[in-house]
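Narrative summary of target 7.
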Amino acid sequence: MTDFVTHHHGPSIRYVEPMPWTLFFDGSSCRHGGDISIVLILSQGSSFEFAYSIKPMSTGNQAEYGAILKGIQLLQEVKANAIEIFGDSQLIINQLIGVYECKDDVLRNYYEKCRGLINEFPMVNIKHILRAQKSGSQLTSSECFWLSTNSRGLQQRDHH
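Modeled conformation, tokenized:
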């Protein structure tokens, strides 16, 4: 995009800030199986919703990590440069931004995969949202868009 703008407007424009893709993730688990939900929002507001079933006996934290991992993989597929990640799992968010250490062996596998992929993006913001800010157990794409554009009022942690 930067090359396009520079080509059409000349070298006087030195900096173009990329518009981020936004990822909302959520995972849930029970004895009989679980689900992960992902919403990707393009900067112009177009959204893409994904839902996947996961194997039984996964923990809630494994489901959350599975959701964020799949979301990050999807962002790689679309070749996103700038990304914002929103999730309600304080543990997962704080592990990924380095506030908490990931000590669980199973979660560490997810953590390392996520960190490896996150490090490949030039611009990343990771933010925690409160469960109370969600409508039911899942966010609709319109709620995600609202949260992503009005995130200044959220309790959040940023990771750059």
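The domain at 19-150 is CATH 3.30.420.10 (Nucleotidyltransferase; domain 5).
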